[in-house]
Amino acid sequence: MPPLNHLRAFEAAARHESFTKAADELNVTQGAVSRHIRTLEDYLGFELFDRGTSGVHLSDASRQFAGVLTRAFDNIDKATETLAKDRRRTILEIRGYTNFLVRWLLPRLPDFQSSHPHIEIKLSSGREELEFGKDGPDVAIRYGHGQWDGLHADLLFEDELLPNCSPALAESVPLQKPEDLLKATVYHSHLRRQEWPRWFGLVSKEPFMPAQEVYTEDLAVAHQCVLAGMGIGLGQREYIADDIANGRLIVPFNIPLKRKAGFYCVYPESRKNLPKVTAFRDWLLSRRTPAVKPQIVSIAQQRRLVA
Fold this sequence. Notes:
Strand order of the largest sheet: 4-3-5-10-6-9
Low-confidence stretches: 291-307
Oligomer: single chain
Helix content: 40-55%
Mean pLDDT: 85
Distance between the termini: 83 Å
Number of strands: 10
Shape: rod-shaped
């Protein structure tokens, strides 16, 4: 193959049909362009330009050769740009529970992306055991006590469940004492069937026997039903904080069912110092703002909220 510098000089001179313009483009002298082209002609064994008093002109064969070189150099430029762009872009894969992703992370994620535009986020959901292998996530959100072999864990928030309902439901079923909850439809999670009985045991000595009970596989479905005023849910304090602050939900009795477990950001110790993991972890921990503290809502307050 002829020397690339000489090919580049010829391609530029052929495209401009001017040694001077080629020199300006390549940021070299006209003499350097002329020498490169002359060396290339010596290599090939024939002249590429017709040199005359009116300037330099290409033969048809030289013009075709120059066109091939132009396309080749364009392809090299595009391939280099793509490679550089891919190397600058970093993909961070986050795996978590669907409810956490939808109710907690997604509303906050634009803030992270605006601060770290070079990090591309890939989200996946699931409850199964994690494998941080070659094709596994970079970080994950896990529920537990913060102890997983070989994994570093940062606590995001503790497990605290609160009864919650829409202002409209609180108007139709006045909730003056905890036992009044039994007059409404209560929403359960199939995975946590004992949550409501345990919470009710904190506030009343009566047996937990609500008027109607609905079980859902997906907590997001139960949440939407509660927002629609169809019943009362028992929600994670962090998940319902925004709805409380915006008046979409109220907490009739501010007595949480607390557990020693919590939600953690986990990742292998080997990835602890990766820049993308460090950036996400630091941002995530900075977003651990105190949840809105719900207040006990009286009948008069309920009516004002609905009005």
